[in-house]
Backbone:
């Protein structure tokens, strides 16, 4: 059973690899190249492995229809389309989907819907082209008529010009199935389920119905001789020559038979006019009618070059003459006769027990290859006789399995072993061992003469072996100039020379006649092989490449990897008939030649070219009598005749397959215009040569960007970044796998547009703008000269006016100052006179009139000074945060006295504005002038309305009053300087002018309007938000004097020891303003009139009282008088608040003992300072009286307080030594309650009554200790202490030492 399998396997291998019997060359014959297939499957990207139809479009893309998807292939990648195709195959019929390209380049498909579809490249989509159902085949003839066959739905002809569709069959023939259509000899032939149908001259008929009766015909084809081939389902192949009237059933040739029962799916004529036959279940056949040979290709999973599946559904020949075979489960197989350059035999192509790998020696004789392997014995391959055999130690007398050399001598084969000597295999396959060689390693066997050989050995040097006598001569390191016994190879030179190559000691020359050996010192390499020709010796080395030794010139030329060799290890050298050398290396085969100057031309071949493997072996090379070259390597053996090597001459079509802009797909529109910011492009392209796309190479360039072509190798993308605006044309060319270039570039033109600012229109605009600019500059300089001239004149005029204004301002200032001096001298004596009590009433009236007008004149002078400051620009804003509502209440209260004195009433309506940012001085002057103006011009018994509110960060202030007459006022002139509406009225007309200037300085507005014919209203709007002012307009906080900072007491928690302040003010806003401003530093008590204030003062005894003068119930003068004349409260400092106009009240207040007098409106900081200083003064009094209870004229105390202190001193003088003087007794002696005395002493001295008595006794004790000689006990009793020890303890607590220690210190 095993032998039957082996013979069957061998037969299939022979059929796959060789044509007929000529497997190996005979005399005067050539080697026929093998047919090897490559594959394309789902592993490479095919959508599915059942390929039912194949086509190539006009561009060059391949289209593969599968059960699951239509595939477009560009050699690099697949594009899948969602189209499924029918794949039904039976012994008597097949139903397969179709894809077809017509003569005009249109792509058509028949998917599983059974409807004809057409591909539209513009939209990259398919659309139904016909409503005819169950379509099976589509074809276009030479007249551009279309034919559409169906499964049982008739046969149609479509006229593309008229767009008419005609049913060609009569009703009886409508059910037939159509499988293939072809134009032949002026007629259109259709293979159908009922035979071969012929359409001609508008009629149809069936040819040779009796021959094709009972089976369906499947496929059609014809060759250049117009021979017609018809395939059938189950009945094989039929042939009809143009000269014959009948078809014949093809059964093969004399030596090659063709089965009659094949299920043929498709037929194809290749470019060599050979017929390819695709069968279902029997693989594929290749029929060469010229050579009368048939090759049968079937699947072999172990053979990578065999057909990949036995169910072949379709055939196709592309424009490169590559034959494609679509299979029903293994994808695509394709054959390119130029792809595999070399015949190959590996273990994958031989039976399991036959070994052709690790080949170390080769010889050929009579169509039989002998291969010695390293460790796997001796293999005989006699392919012409279907004979493979491997000899090993186990199945023969072979001495060992490591065969290092072979030599065929007639019918005998000499076998050189590693460590097992030399053996001979005769024609009867009997192996005998040559005597005297049992343990030798024979690297090479070389013919010497008819009876002797040269033997190159590993450790015995060079031997001469006689077939009859054995070893007859020996050259080694002991008897010659050889320095090593390891002889790798030898080659015959001229008749008298043998060249010897050693394993590790270079090259030697043997003079055969003289039997002398000479070392060639210029060649010291480890030698693998030698070749001699025409006085030139070629040397293959182990690591130093190929060397040429010119024997006549004794020169050496070296060729290494840097010169183009694939590797620097050269195993074998063989010549061909065209003066080339073929080299086997560790990296494939090389074709090598040199010119007259020994410059090399090297062409390398790799696995892509059909090599057994990249690595070859030492000694495994041979050239037969016909010039066929053999090279053995690790995986097997290659053989070829160099002059029969073919190269693919077809130039590939090159296509640009994609465009990306910034790595995003961009549709390739012809002459596309891209904006300037889309200037980073990536092109992808492909060479539509599909046999070996990984070896296709590319060159590209971008016209107007690249200077020349850029070689990208097999990389099929080109990337450009930041292309400047320009017109570009991208060009790309490609080569096939044999380096044949198609120098006609595929192009794509596009434009990167200029940005709008760089377009021609923009440049025209720029030019116009430049002209306009030049004209503008001219006009400008002309205008500037004119303006400068005018400005110079105006400047001179302005300077003159400025000097005049400065002079005027200076005059105003000087006059004002000069007037103030005499006014002061006038008002001073007048005030002194008015103080005299004996003044007569009429004199007092005159003096008061003088004082009133001097004050009026002073106000006018101040206004003039303010105006001069504004005019000169010296007046600036000093904005600070303040309680604006309180400030306005103070100002209005200032004018209440004047208003009431003239029987007028000021009605105030002021909104709370506690955190406003204003210049208080400007606000005071503006409001004061407006109120003063209103009081001046308002009739008696009328009201003046002052209203202030905040709106959107601005102060809205209005002052409204009734006019004294009903005449219409000239409002526009009210704010002019020195304007007086009534010439008889008081004033000089500068008040409102000053108001306007100050309002403008404060960034506000001032307006005036008349209401109800007899009312006039002034409206002021001022910004009061911080953001309305700059930093320079803010009051400088850091530069504020130290004594103006808010008072900070140690106790911030308002404890009982904290200073307290009583605020007496009838105006709620002012009272609240003062209280809130002081509450952070003092305990605050408030009262709304003088009577309530007196009551609280006596109850709480505050440290200070602030009181308004004008109040209901009891005014400030009465409050001051009451408190200062009361012993309990006389020590409390009092600050009076009043208006400017109440000067007599100020004098009266000072008379009653007021400690300070502040005019409204007042600064809260000034008030704080006055409070602080007065409280500090009271503290100094406490400190004074706590040290010595003596009155000092420099101390500021009231008469009431002086009387109290005198009475205290009197009581002390009389009763201090009385031990019965307690706090109760002290209060009785002072005619005061104990509590009142305690609080009074605490306020004045800072201690309680008991502590005060004790401190005074201790002070007396100090005087006695210094002045008397009394003892401590005596002094204790003298000063009123009942216990000397208690006296000593009290004394030490007060003075830090005992009385005795104190007395000793002051002796």
Residues:
């Amino acid at each position: 059973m095993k032998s039957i399998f082996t013979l069957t396997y061998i037969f299939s291998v022979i059929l796959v690899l060789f044509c007929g019997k000529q497997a190996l060359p005979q005399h005067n014959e050539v080697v026929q190249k093998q047919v090897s297939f490559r594959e394309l499957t789902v592993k490479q990207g095919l959508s599915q492995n059942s390929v039912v139809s194949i086509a190539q479009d006009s561009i060059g893309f391949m289209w593969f229809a599968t059960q699951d998807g239509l595939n477009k292939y560009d050699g690099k990648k697949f594009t899948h389309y969602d189209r499924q195709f029918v794949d039904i195959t039976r012994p008597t019929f097949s139903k397969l989907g179709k894809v077809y390209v017509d003569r005009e380049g249109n792509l058509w498909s028949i998917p599983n819907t059974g409807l004809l579809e057409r591909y539209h490249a513009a939209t990259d989509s398919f659309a139904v082209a016909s409503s005819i159902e169950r379509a099976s085949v589509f074809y276009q003839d030479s007249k551009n008529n279309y034919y559409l066959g169906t499964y049982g739905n008739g046969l149609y002809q479509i006229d593309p010009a008229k767009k008419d569709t005609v049913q060609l069959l009569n009703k009886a023939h409508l059910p037939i199935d159509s499988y293939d259509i072809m134009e032949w000899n002026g007629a259109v032939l259709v293979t159908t389920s009922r035979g071969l149908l012929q359409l001609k001259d508008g009629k149809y008929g069936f040819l040779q119905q009796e021959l094709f009766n009972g089976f369906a015909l499947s496929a059609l084809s014809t060759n250049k001789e117009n021979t017609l081939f018809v395939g059938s389902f189950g009945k094989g192949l039929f042939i009809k020559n143009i000269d014959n009237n009948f078809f014949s059933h093809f059964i093969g040739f004399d030596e090659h038979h063709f089965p009659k029962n094949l299920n043929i799916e498709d037929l194809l004529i290749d470019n060599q006019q050979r017929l390819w036959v695709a069968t279902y279940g029997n693989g594929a056949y290749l029929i060469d009618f010229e050579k009368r040979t048939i090759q049968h290709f079937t699947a072999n999973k172990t053979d990578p070059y065999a057909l990949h599946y036995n169910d072949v559904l379709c055939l196709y020949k592309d424009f490169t003459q590559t034959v494609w075979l679509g299979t029903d489960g293994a994808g695509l197989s394709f054959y390119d006769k130029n792809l595999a350059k070399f015949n190959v035999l590996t273990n994958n192509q031989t039976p399991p027990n036959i070994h052709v790998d690790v080949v170390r020696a080769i010889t050929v004789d009579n169509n039989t290859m002998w291969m010695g392997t390293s460790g796997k014995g001796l293999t005989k391959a006699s392919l012409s006789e279907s004979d493979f055999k491997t000899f090993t130690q186990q199945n023969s007398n072979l001495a060992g399995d490591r065969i290092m050399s072979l030599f065929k001598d007639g019918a005998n084969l000499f076998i050189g072993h590693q460590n097992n000597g030399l053996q001979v295999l005769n024609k009867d396959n009997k192996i005998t061992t040559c005597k005297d060689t049992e343990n030798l390693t024979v690297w090479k066997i070389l013919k010497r003469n008819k009876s002797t050989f040269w033997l190159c050995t590993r450790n015995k040097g060079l031997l001469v072996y006689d077939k009859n006598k054995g070893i007859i001569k020996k050259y080694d390191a002991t008897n010659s100039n050889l320095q090593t016994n390891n002889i790798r190879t030898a080659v015959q030179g001229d008749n008298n020379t043998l060249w010897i190559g050693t394993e590790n000691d270079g090259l030697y020359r043997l003079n055969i006649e003289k039997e002398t050996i000479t070392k060639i010192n210029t060649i010291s390499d480890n030698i693998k092989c030698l070749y001699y020709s025409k006085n030139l010796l070629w040397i293959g080395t182990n690591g130093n490449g190929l060397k040429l030794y010119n024997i006549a010139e004794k020169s050496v030329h070296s060729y290494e990897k840097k010169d183009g060799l694939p590797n620097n290890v050269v195993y074998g050298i063989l010549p061909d008939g065209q003066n080339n050398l073929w080299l086997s290396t560790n990296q494939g085969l090389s074709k090598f030649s040199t010119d007259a100057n020994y410059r090399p031309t090297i062409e390398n071949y790799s696995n892509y070219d059909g090599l057994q493997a990249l690595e070859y072996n030492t000694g495994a090379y041979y050239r037969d009598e016909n010039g066929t070259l053999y090279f053995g390597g690790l995986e097997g053996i290659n053989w070829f005749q160099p002059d029969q090597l073919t190269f693919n001459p077809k130039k590939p079509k090159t296509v640009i397959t994609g465009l990306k802009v910034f790595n995003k797909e961009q549709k390739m529109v012809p002459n596309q215009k891209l904006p300037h910011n889309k200037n980073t492009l990536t092109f992808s392209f492909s060479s539509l040569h599909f046999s070996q796309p990984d070896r296709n190479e590319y060159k590209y360039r971008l016209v107007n960007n690249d200077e020349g072509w850029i070689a990208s190798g097999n990389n099929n993308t080109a990337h450009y970044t930041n292309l400047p605006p320009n017109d570009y044309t991208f060009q790309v060319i490609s080569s096939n796998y044999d380096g044949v270039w198609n120098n006609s570039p595929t192009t794509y033109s596009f434009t990167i547009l200029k940005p709008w600012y760089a377009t021609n229109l923009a440049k025209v605009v720029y030019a116009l703008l430049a002209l306009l600019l030049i004209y503008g500059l001219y006009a400008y300089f002309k205008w500037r000269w004119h303006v400068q001239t005018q400005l110079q004149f105006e400047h001179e005029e302005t300077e003159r006016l400025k000097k005049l204004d400065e002079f005027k301002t200076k005059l105003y200032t000087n006059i004002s100052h000069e007037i103030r001096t005499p006014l002061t001298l006038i008002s001073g004596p007048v005030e002194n006179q008015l103080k005299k009590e004996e003044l007569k009433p009429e004199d007092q009236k005159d003096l008061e009139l003088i004082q009133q007008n001097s004050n009026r004149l002073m106000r006018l002078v101040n206004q003039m000074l303010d105006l001069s400051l504004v005019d000169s620009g010296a007046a600036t804003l000093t904005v600070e945060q303040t309680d604006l509502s309180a400030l306005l209440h103070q100002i209005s209260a200032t004018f209440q006295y004047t208003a009431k004195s003239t029987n007028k009433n000021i009605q105030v309506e002021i909104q709370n504005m506690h955190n406003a940012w204003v210049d208080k001085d400007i606000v005071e002057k503006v409001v004061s002038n407006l109120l003063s103006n209103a009081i001046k011009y308002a009739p008696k018994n009328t009201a003046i309305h002052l209203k202030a509110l905040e709106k959107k960060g601005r102060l809205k202030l209005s002052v409204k009053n009734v006019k004294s007459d009903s005449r219409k006022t000239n409002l526009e002139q009210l704010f002019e300087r020195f304007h007086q509406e009534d010439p008889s009225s008081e004033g000089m007309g500068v008040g409102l002018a000053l108001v306007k200037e100050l309002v403008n300085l404060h960034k506000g507005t001032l307006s005036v309007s008349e209401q109800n014919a007899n009312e006039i209203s002034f409206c002021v709007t001022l910004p009061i938000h911080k953001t309305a002012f700059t930093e320079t307009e803010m009051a400088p906080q850091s530069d504020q004097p130290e004594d103006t900072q808010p008072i900070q007491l140690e106790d911030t928690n308002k404890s009982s020891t904290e200073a307290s302040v009583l605020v007496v003010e009838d105006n709620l806003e002012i009272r609240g303003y003062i209280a809130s401003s002081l509450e952070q530093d003092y305990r605050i008590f408030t009262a709304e009139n003088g009577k309530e204030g007196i009551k609280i003062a006596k109850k709480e005894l505050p440290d200070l009282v602030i009181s308004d003068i004008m109040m209901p119930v009891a005014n400030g003068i009465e409050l001051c008088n009451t408190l200062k004349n009361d012993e309990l409260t006389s020590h409390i400092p009092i600050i009076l608040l009043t208006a400017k106009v109440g000067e007599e009240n100020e004098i009266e207040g000072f008379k009653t003992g007021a400690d300070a007098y502040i005019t409204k409106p007042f600064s809260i900081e000034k008030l704080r300072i006055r409070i602080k200083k007065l409280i500090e003064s009271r503290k100094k009094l406490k400190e004074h009286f706590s040290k010595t209870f003596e009155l000092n004229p420099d101390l500021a105390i009231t008469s009431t307080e002086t009387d109290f202190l005198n009475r205290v001193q009197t009581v002390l003088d009389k009763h201090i030594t009385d031990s019965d003087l307690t706090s109760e007794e002290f209060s009785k002696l002072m005619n005061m309650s104990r509590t009142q005395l305690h609080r009074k002493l605490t306020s004045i001295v800072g201690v309680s009554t008991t502590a005060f008595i004790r401190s005074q006794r201790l002070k007396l004790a100090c005087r006695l200790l210094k002045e008397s000689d009394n003892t401590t006990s005596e002094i204790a009793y003298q000063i009123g202490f009942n216990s000397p020890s208690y006296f000593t303890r009290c004394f030490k607590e007060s003075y830090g030492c005992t009385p005795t220690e104190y007395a000793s210190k002051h002796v």
